[in-house]
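Q: Can I see a sequence and its folded structure?
A: Here is a first one.
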Amino acid sequence: MRCTHPISFRWLAALLALLATLLASAPSQAVPAYARQTGKVCASCHFQHYPALNDFGMDFKASGYVDMKNKPLAGKDLSLADSLYGGIFTKIRYQKSNGTDGTDANGDAVKSTHSGELQFPDEFALLLGGRVAPNIGFLLEGQLASGGDAVLAGFKMPMVWALGESGMKGGVVPYTTDGLGASYGFELLNTGAVRNVRVSEHRNETSAQQYVFFQDHGAATGFAFTLYDPKFFVVVAPFTPNHLPGAGSNIGGLSSTYLRAAFTPTVAGWSLAAGVQVWQGNKARVDDGGSLLTGSTKGWSLDAQAQGAVAGMPLGVYFAHAKAPGSPAGGTHNLFNANPNSRTATTVTAELGVLPQKATVILALRRADNGAATYSGDNAVTLGGTFQLYQNVQLQLAHSTRGKKNDVGRYGPNVPAEGTKGGSAMTTLMLSAGF
C-alpha cells in the first residue's frame, strides 16, 4: 500500500528556522566515558553525530575499547585502566501524533500522543566502559528499573587478539542485553543492524532491521566470535533469546545462531559497506514473565552504507532490506514476527550535513509489509534533522507519515470503543545528552 500522506514543506521550513535559531550555540566539546578514557573528542569516533560511527570509531570498537590516553596501572600480568570511566546517557522527548483521543469506560478523557506527550526521561542509562587488560575491554549499561526490569540492561566484554601485522583481529565477545538484539555482541555499521545504532530516533521508519527484528523481541545472551579487518568483518554468535539477569531458570543452552558478514572498503575517500545478517533457530526457550515458551528466531537482512562528502558537506546514505517469516496458526511461533505472513521492509535513508559537524537534514523512505492477514501495507516517509548543541548534546526533530487503510491508525492507540482514533503521522522533538 502506498503512503498517501506526503510531507509538507512546512516541516522543512520549520526545521531550517530552528537550526538557524540555534547557531549561536557555544563551540562543541564532549565528555562521555570513552572520550574520558581516550582523551579524544566525540567527533573522533562518530560520523556527523553520535551514535553513528566513522572508520576510526569502528576500529576502536573492533579493538575492544582498550585505547587510553594515560599509562595503565601496570604490573606482572596487569594492564588496567587508571580509572573506572563512566557516563550518563539520557533522552527527553515530546511526541505528537495526529489521531484523536476519546473517553474510557468511566467517561474520563483518554490522553496519549494524540494530545501530545512529554516523555521525561524517555531513557536514562548509566554507562561504564573501558580497558580491563591490553586486549580486553567492557561496556556495562545500567538503567532505572521498573516493572520488574533488571537494573543491568546490558553488558559485554570483548576479548580481542591481533592476527599478524595487517590490522586483522580475532576475538570473542560474551554479552547479554535486554533489548538490543543478538547483533549487540558485535556490529559496526550505521544501518540499524543493532538496535541502539541508527541515524534517526524514528528508527522503525528509517531502518528495515529495526522495523522487522527489534520491535517485539530483542533480549539476547551469547558469545560473538569475531574476525575483523579494516576491509571486512565476520561474526558467528550462538545465543539464547533471553536476558539472563531476568531469565529465570531452565531456559536451556544457546539454541539460536546469529551470523553477520560485511565488506567495508574505502573508495575515493568514501567509507563504503555492504553486508548480510542471518538469524537461525527453531527451538528457542524463552522466559515470558515466568512462563517458558518455545519459538523460532528466523530472519535475514541485506544492508549497505556510504559515508563521505558532497560539495564539502558530509553525506551518509543507508540502505537495508529485511525479512522475518511469519507465525502460521498451528506452527512454530517466530519471536520476531507474531503475524501469519512474512514481515518485510526496505528502507533508504540519507543524511546531509548542511552545517558540517553541527546540523543535518534527514530524508527516509520505507516500503514495508507487517505480515498481518489484512491491511498489512506499512509504507512511510520521514523528514527530520539533528543539531549538535555540543558534540555530546543533540537536538533532533523527526516527522513521519505512514499510509493507512480502512481507517486503521498507524500511530498511537486506536480503540474504537473509546472513540480513540489512531493517526497517520508522528512528530518527535528530542533532546539527548551523554556526559
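Q: Show me another, different protein.
A: A second, unrelated one:
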Amino acid sequence: MKVQKLNLWQLSAFEDVELNFCPGINVFLGTNSTGKSHTMKALYAPIKTLEQAASTVPLEARLHEKLANVFKPDEGAMGRLVHRRKGQGQGKIDIQGSTGDIGVTLFTTGKKTLEVRASTWKSEASTIFLPTREVLAMYEGFAAAYQDRELSFDETYYDACVALGRAVLRGPRSEQAKALITPIEEALGGKVALQGNRFYLVRKDGVMEAHLVAEGLRKIASLAQLVLNGSLTQKGILFWDEPEANLNPRLVGLVVDMLLELAGRGVQIFVTTHDYLLSNKLSLLADYKKRPDVAIRFFAFHRAKEHGPVVVNAGSTLADLPDNPILDEFLRHYDFERTLFDEAAAGGGK
C-alpha cells in the first residue's frame, strides 16, 4: 500500500493543505517549526495503528493512544494539535492510499476527543519511523524502560527499538538484504550484530559497542540492521526525520544511494532534511533522470506571513519550488562572502 494523498485541516501548523505523494522518495524541506515532522507523524501514527493486529480495544481508543504517544501533547490532550482551539475546534487527518483510506477527526472540547471516519487502509509490510536521534545506542533496556516508566521520548523511539530487535533474516531474502547493505558495511568497516541486549559493530580488528561508535555511523548501522532483519522490505514505508543530523558530509552520498536502492525495491520513503547535499543530489538525479525507476518529489513548507499558517508547494526538482530555504541560505552566504571580498579588495587599494 502506497500513500497517495494527505489532507491536514486545522491541524498543527496547517489550516488546510493537501499533499500528493509519489511512490518513491518524498522530501520535506522547510525552516524549523513549519510542520515537517508533524506531517510525517500525522501519517505514521494512523498507519502504524492500522498495521497492528486486531484487538479487543476499540480502534478509536488505540488510535488516540498512538497519536498521544507519538505527538506527546500534555496529558494526552489531542485537542492541543488542533490549529484553532477556541470554541468547538476540530482538526482532521485524511490519508488516501492506493487501496484504502484513513480519516480521523480530533476535537478540542466535549467528551469525544477523537473520531475515526474511515479505516480501510491495509498495510502490506512494516512501517518504520527513524527519529532525528539515532536509537542503536539507546536500545539496551530502552523498550522495557519505556513500557514501565514515563519517558520524554515519543513512541517513535520505542517503535524503532522494537523493529531493530527483530531476528535477522535467513534464506533467499537474507541474501537479497546482504547485497543491499554491502556498501553500508564497507562504510562502517564491519557488520552490525545484536548480542544479548546490546548492539555491537563487529570489525576485523575487534568488536566495539554501538554507543562507542560515532553517532553518524550508528544511524547508518541502524539502517543496515533494519534491512537485514526484514523490517525494511518491499511495499514497506520508511519515515526518516533529518537523516543528515550528526552525519559526516562524506556519508550523505551513501544515504542518498541507500534511499534510492530502497525505493527501487518498492519501499516508499518520506524524509525531512535541512541538508543542501542530500536534497540537491536527489534533485540532480531526478532532473537528469539518472534513476528513472525511482520517483522523487520535493515539498517546501513555509509561512506566507509571519506566524501565519504553513503552506506547502511541491515539485519534481528543487527548481520547481518557489520557496527553498536551503538554497536561499546558500545564496545569502554567497552574498556575504562576496561583500567581504569586495570590502577587502577596496581596502587593499587605498
